[in-house]
């Protein structure tokens, strides 16, 4: 509906613009007739006029005083011809737009116009919309969680981690590092009663969902991947309540407050599995097929995946659509891996038979939001990089998570210079 209304508005605007141009040019002719030498310039012939290539602009007529009224009449005729042509073009454009909108119901949904049309600024100054507006908070979705978040969140933002008893020891390192930094706005979503008790004993903000059979079954018995799928469903409520969530796995050590290092310009801002600038931020990967001879090189775009265990997600419609898409695919394709699904939904563009997700994304700085491959393969061996203090370290690349987490604390918090040395780069 909005699309239709907009289109009608455009057609009216189109003819108004044409009318305005016609009147303007007419006035120009009258003034040129009355003031053949112009108001200021002594010699109008020395002025060159730019040639307009745009269909929407009408060439200014040269009105010479000597030819007078005849000239004006002829210009007038030309003008109304141009005007008619212009109106025809606007009509055709509208017809094309209408055809495009009706061609596909999905397209029409997406064509909702968010604001008044605006003129593009000068070269190099235009910026597209990437920061989507937040949703209207809906407390009725979960009043109990709404009340809890109102107490905990800072600036409508909160760190959220899901945990069951399997990860209890890592959870302890996780919340102790958060406490040490002094971050107040964090919450553990407990998947079993042991974790509820453990958090209460340690004065850690904890939330347990109301009983929900499917969810509780996965939560209690599930391995890493099953729990990962669950989190997309749980996260939805946080977003619906209007909160920006920094979703965090528990194999993460906090060294600074991450909320001081977010850009908040994108729907999803995520840490990367990449291990250097190229792999983390994207590069042109040339595929070589020698049998093609002259055209042997095909260029491809590559980027290492986002880590779905640590990302900041703003409460916007595209963000919620992302969570829904991922949760839906994890249900209908039980063998899929949530991180792969998360990345595919974020990355693949629309194509025949598929409408892509129109979410904006940002890759976090790999030295501030550091994965354990960057730390153990590069940073600890580099005299300059090892002096920098990351915001977090995520022990995602190594199975011996617990000892490596403790080593990270020893190195960065307690200043033990050799704390990282005993570990191999990868697992052995
Ligand atoms: C990686 O990117 C950062 C930020 O753009 C830059 O400061 C740094 O020099 C780059 N490092 C390398 C090795 O290119």
UniProtKB/TrEMBL annotation:
Keywords: Cell wall biogenesis/degradation, Coiled coil, Glycosyltransferase, Golgi apparatus, Membrane, Signal-anchor, Transferase, Transmembrane, Transmembrane helix. Residues 69-110 form a coiled coil. Its EC number is 2.4.2.-. One of its GO terms (biological process) is root hair cell development. The gene is LOC102582025. Residues 183-401 form the Nucleotide-diphospho-sugar transferase domain. It is an enzyme of class 2 (transferase). Residues 42-67, 115-138 are annotated as: Disordered. It is a single-pass type II membrane protein. Pfam families: Nucleotid_trans (PF03407). It is found in: Golgi apparatus membrane. GO terms for molecular function: glycosyltransferase activity. The chain crosses the membrane at residues 20-40. This is Glycosyltransferase. Residues 44-67 have a biased composition (Polar residues). InterPro entries: Nucl-diP-sugar_transferase, Nucleotide-diphossugar_trans, RRA1/2/3. GO terms for cellular component: Golgi membrane. Its main location: Golgi. It comes from the Eukaryota. It comes from Solanum tuberosum. Belongs to the glycosyltransferase 77 family.
């Amino acid at each position: 509906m909005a699309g239709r209304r907009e289109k009608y508005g455009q057609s009216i605007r189109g003819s108004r613009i044409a009318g305005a141009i016609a009147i303007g040019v007419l006035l120009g002719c009258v003034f040129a007739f009355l003031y053949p030498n112009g108001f200021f310039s002594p010699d109008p012939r020395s002025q060159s006029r730019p040639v307009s290539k745009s269909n929407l602009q009408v060439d200014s007529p040269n009105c010479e005083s000597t030819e007078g009224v005849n000239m004006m009449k002829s210009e007038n005729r030309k003008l109304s011809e141009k005007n008619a042509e212009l109106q025809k073009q606007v009509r055709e454009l509208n017809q094309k737009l209408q055809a495009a909108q009706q061609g596909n119901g999905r397209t029409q949904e997406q064509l909702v116009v968010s604001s008044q049309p605006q003129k593009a600024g000068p070269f190099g100054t235009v910026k597209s919309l990437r920061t989507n507006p937040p949703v209207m908070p809906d407390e009725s979705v979960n009043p109990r969680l709404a009340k809890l978040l109102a107490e905990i969140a800072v600036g409508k933002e909160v760190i959220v981690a899901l945990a069951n008893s399997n990860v209890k020891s890592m959870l302890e390192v996780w919340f102790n590092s958060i406490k040490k930094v002094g971050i107040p706005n964090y919450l553990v979503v407990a998947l079993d009663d042991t974790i509820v008790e453990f958090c209460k004993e340690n004065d850690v903000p904890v939330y347990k969902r109301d009983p929900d059979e499917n969810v509780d079954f996965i939560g209690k018995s599930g391995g890493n991947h099953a729990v990962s799928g669950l989190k997309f469903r749980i996260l939805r409520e946080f977003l619906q309540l209007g909160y920006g969530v920094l979703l965090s796995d528990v194999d993460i050590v906090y060294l600074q407050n991450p909320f001081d290092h977010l850009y908040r310009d994108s729907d999803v801002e995520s840490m990367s599995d990449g291990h250097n600038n190229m792999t983390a931020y994207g590069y042109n990967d040339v595929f070589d097929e020698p049998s093609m001879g002259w055209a042997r090189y095909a260029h491809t775009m590559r980027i290492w995946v986002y880590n779905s265990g640590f990302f900041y997600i703003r409460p916007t419609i595209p963000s919620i659509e992302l969570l829904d898409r991922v949760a839906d695919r994890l249900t209908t394709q039980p063998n899929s891996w949530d991180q792969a699904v998360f990345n595919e939904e974020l990355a693949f563009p629309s194509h025949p038979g598929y409408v892509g997700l129109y979410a904006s994304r940002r890759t976090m700085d790999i030295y501030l939001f550091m994965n354990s491959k960057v730390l153990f393969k590069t940073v600890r061996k580099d005299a300059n990089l090892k002096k920098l203090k990351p915001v977090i370290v995520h022990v995602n690349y190594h199975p011996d998570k617990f000892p490596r987490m403790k080593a990270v604390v020893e190195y960065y918090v307690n200043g033990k210079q050799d704390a990282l040395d005993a570990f191999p780069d990868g697992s052995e």
